[in-house]
Amino acid sequence: MLGTTETQSKDLNLVGKSLFLSSFISLLVLFGVAAQPAYPQNDFGNVKKGLIASFWSASPEGSRGLFESLREAEPTVQALYELLEKGPEYSSDVPKGQQERVRIADDGTRFPYVFLIPEGYDPGHKYPVEFLLHGGVSRPEWEPGGAWWRRGFDSLKREDRIVVVPASWNDAFWWHENQAENLPLILNILKGSYNLDEDRVTLTGISDGGTGAYFFAFKQPTAWAAFLPYIGHPGVLRNPQSGGGYKLYFENLMSKPLYIVNGENDRLYPSSSVAPFIDILVDVGVNHIWKVIPDGGHDTSWLSQEMPFIEEFKQKNPRDPLPESVKWVADRTDKFNRNLWVQVDELSQSPGLIEVTREGNDFDVIARGVSAFTLLLNPDEVNFALPVGVTVNGEKIHQERVMQNANTLLSWASIDKDRSMLFTAELNLRVND
Fold it and tell me: Which H or E run contains 45?
């Protein structure tokens, strides 16, 4: 697993071996040996497997160091796309059961997390993933090696999914920017060793964790299939004193469903205080379920009775990684500016709204306050043999063929590590004044 110096050192050794083998193969090709290869074909296949394994398990920076070797191993974009779409060959020889790990950020901050792997883990099977965000974040930083969650994890272990329990504290609330970076990176670390179902990754939160689930739904939904905030309140995100102070744009909730539970008599967030928020969800047509627990307090005593409905909700709502329509509102462009295959690159006013609808090779864009944006193109959705047309606010601004690019494919794959959401081309466009 990544997240420790020892493991990163092993990964670098593997990367070095892969680079050596790839360079060796390139020399064979250069000297014409590849026409009658003395280098066994199954070994060449093993080189590619090693490269993909290293690419998938490395950090984004480490993955970028493998671009050249991957392009040499698969010289066409289509072949490289198929290699990435298949992903690594996962091993059964991986840690199972309860595992406690720590991710260390660039600034040295330690982000502990526990993940629970089924004892009968089968690498040939894709596993749904559930992130569970705990409450009570106003506490000191978790001590290394300590029992950092007092209730334990036995009740959370499941054979049909992988469960991830990260940690939050007073310098890293769930809605802080360091956690916005942390949670997707933890998810990608797990993708390096375990066969996850990228389209069934859910984010559940309790109390402050529920508020955290709202944060990711509003600001950073790309990696998630659905959000389940329990006994939380989105209004906390608007409060500067809580470390948030965010503006909330309900358009950003349109693509991912929510399962919301509040207690009628919750001492912190009674359901009556959440009702105005729910009214807006109804008005704008956000896909959601809201359950009010009669006489319920600030607790989850209702959870066992509600669980069958929660599981049905998850089953019915896998992520669509390449929907035909994407809408997003952004008030900054350094982060929180992307939803799936649409990214806002420049604002002429804040906030800016962009709505893109794709029909074959034609993209219709509504842009308000957005002066530059990027469309990420997938070869299963776009026919690159034909021109790609883009109309913005009724004006055609692009009508020509787009070339697929291996570096584009690898760059976005190094960020997302997502087999079902790969992009072989990007269109960087400006909105005419």
Answer: helix 41-57
CATH code of 296's domain: 3.40.50.1820
* Residue whose token pair is 């709202």: 214
The order of strands in the sheet holding 325-330 is 325-330, 352-359, 362-368, 388-392, 395-400
Share of the chain above pLDDT 70, in %: 88
- Tell me how far CA of residue 93 lies from CA of 1, 89, 121, 124, 363, in angstroms: 12, 12, 10, 12, 45
Upper half-sphere CA count for residue 328 (Cβ side, 13 Å) = 27
Q: Of 94, 110, 102, 116, whose CA–CA distance to 4 is shortest?
A: 102
Q: If you write DSSP's letter for every residue of 128-169 in order, what string do you get? A: EEEEEE-S---SPPPPTTS--STT-SGGG--SSSEEEEE--B
Task: Tell me how far CA of residue 409 lies from CA of 55, 63, 321, 404, in angstroms.
Answer: 13, 12, 16, 8
Residue 90 lies in a domain: no
Read off the pLDDT of each residue in 311-326 and give the average, rounded to a whole number.
Answer: 98
Q: Do residues 291 and 173 both lie within one domain? A: yes
For residues 45 and 326, which has the higher predicted lDDT (pLDDT)? 326
DSSP structural state of residue 389: E
